[in-house]
From TrEMBL:
This is Aspartate aminotransferase. Belongs to the class-I pyridoxal-phosphate-dependent aminotransferase family. Homodimer. It comes from Escallonia rubra. It is an enzyme of class 2 (transferase). Transmembrane segments: none annotated. In eukaryotes there are cytoplasmic, mitochondrial and chloroplastic isozymes. Keywords: Aminotransferase, Pyridoxal phosphate, Transferase. It catalyses: L-aspartate + 2-oxoglutarate = oxaloacetate + L-glutamate. Residues 68-435 form the Aminotransferase class I/classII large domain.
Length: 443
């Protein structure tokens, strides 16, 4: 038998025309569908992305069925029963919203006015002259991450080529944010493994050595992942060198209230810089302190030297936000505005925050006591107590952290960070055993 193409050849041009007419006729009757076989995906060149170093830990935890498993990966507050916690004031604020029958129409691009007012006041203090002088541009963002991303886009657009200096180490997503925004970054020394403390001299000299006009990313309080913050005197010296070098401070405030239990004390670093008349950027998040993780509520604030500059900066932040996500969600913004704007709810929030911060401090103490009681080697574990906020930077290396997960079912990030917010008093002894085993038996 000849191949079909030979018959077509033999039919000649005329035969081909007849064939085309017949196919067209059958197609018009719907009898023939022309299918193109797809056996190679158009997305073939896309490789599998690695799991996220922090959020990927929760996925692995969920897949583990061991009864002693413990999720100390993500920085999310849990109760003593290790259950997620919705704050009482959040429930009250949500009830208020239902009673008022509030609408769901679009917010303006810059977000809810009452939220923007409340968040700037919470950051700087309600009676700060900067607010009265309208020198602050505040735009509601998609929580801390989205707010940082807006600021990164502003830097890329108006300070092209300027570098952002980030601490070594830092929250893992900082690098992704600046990479995706095409903002060059480099690191300044921060953590000293020898003292398990701050490498203050290294930090100062790296900030000094950066090209003039760089952005210096600082953790407002409760440094993530180390839990090590500069002292008030060290903050002054950091401000000195930043001013000297004409750098622009860029604060990431994701834990206001969680470091000390006090909202004002935890904002003191930002306020110190602002009081010097410096221009600065501040990204805020309400994920931790109000437990609004999934509501994605936060803000980007730019403190400027004049009201006029602040108005222009705000207009450009809005211009950046519009094609990214158009305008932000309203629910979390109303919760924050209701809580901060109502004196009774505001006080209740402070009490709940003290409670959360207190529970973390007490498991920190219990973990330290348990380790000291079990470890007879004389090793100094006191850094666990000195660190503040949600995390403890254990100093465990990658192999030791793997042992924590593979042998003990303790899920944590591979940099040796554990979230004490996910630890209960009941599990401290177990965690102490896991840490001691990993520290001494894995190199
Ligand atoms: N900045 C710092 C220093 C943070 O630790 C976090 C959250 C954020 C910003 C962003 O928080 P938003 O949720 O966008 O408001 N870090 C947590 C949460 C998990 C994550 O990586 O997003 C953590 O466990 O480090």
């Amino acid at each position: 038998m000849l191949p079909p193409s030979s018959y077509l050849y033999m039919m000649g041009n005329f035969g081909l025309q007849i064939l085309v007419i017949v196919i067209s006729f059958l197609q018009s009757l719907g009898r023939i569908t022309m299918a193109v076989a797809v056996d190679v995906s158009r997305f073939e060149s896309i490789t599998m992305a690695p799991p996220d170093p922090i959020l990927g830990v929760s996925e692995a935890f969920r897949a583990d069925t061991h009864e002693m498993k413990l999720n100390l990966g993500v920085g999310a507050y849990r109760t003593e029963e290790l259950q997620p916690y919705v704050l009482g004031v959040v429930k009250k604020a949500e009830n208020l919203m239902l009673e008022r029958g509030e609408f769901k129409e679009y917010l303006p691009i810059e977000g809810l006015a009452a939220f923007n007012k409340a968040t700037a006041e919470l950051l700087l203090g309600a009676d700060n002259p900067i607010i009265k002088q309208q020198r602050i541009a505040t735009v509601q963002g998609l929580s801390g991450t989205g707010s940082l991303r807006l600021a990164a886009a502003l830097i890329e657009r108006y300070f092209t080529g300027a570098k952002v200096l980030i601490s070594s180490p830092t929250w893992g997503n900082h690098k992704n944010i600046f990479n995706d925004a095409r903002v060059p970054w480099s690191e300044y020394r921060y953590y000293d493994p020898k003292t398990v403390g701050l490498d203050f001299d290294g930090m100062i000299s790296d900030i000094k050595a950066a090209p003039e006009g760089s952005f210096i990313l600082l953790h407002g309080c409760a440094h993530n992942p180390t839990g090590i913050d500069p002292t008030p005197e060290q903050w002054e010296a950091i401000a000195d060198v930043i001013q000297e070098k004409n750098h622009i401070p860029f604060f990431d405030v994701a834990y206001q209230g969680f470091a000390s239990g006090s909202l004002d004390a935890d904002a003191s670093s930002v306020r110190l810089f602002a009081a010097r008349g410096m221009e600065l950027l501040v990204a805020q998040s309400y994920s931790k302190n109000l437990g609004l993780y999934a509501e994605r509520i936060g803000a980007i604030n730019v403190v400027c030297s004049s009201a006029d500059a602040a108005a222009r900066v705000k207009s450009q932040l809005k211009r950046i936000a519009r094609p990214m996500y158009s305008n932000p969600p309203v629910h979390g913004a109303r919760i924050v505005a209701n809580v901060v704007g109502d004196p009774a709810l505001f006080n209740e929030w402070k009490e709940e925050m003290e409670l959360m911060a207190g529970r973390i401090k007490s498991v920190r103490q219990k973990l330290y006591d348990s380790i000291c009681a079990k470890d007879k080697s004389g090793k100094d574990w006191s850094y666990i107590l000195k660190q503040i906020g949600m995390f403890s930077f254990t100093g465990l290396n990658r192999a030791q952290s793997d042992n924590m997960t593979d042998k003990w079912h303790v899920y944590m990030t591979k940099d040796g960070r554990i979230s004490l917010a996910g630890l209960s008093a009941a599990k401290c002894e177990y965690l102490a055993d896991a840490i001691i085993d990993s520290f001494y038996n894995v190199s």
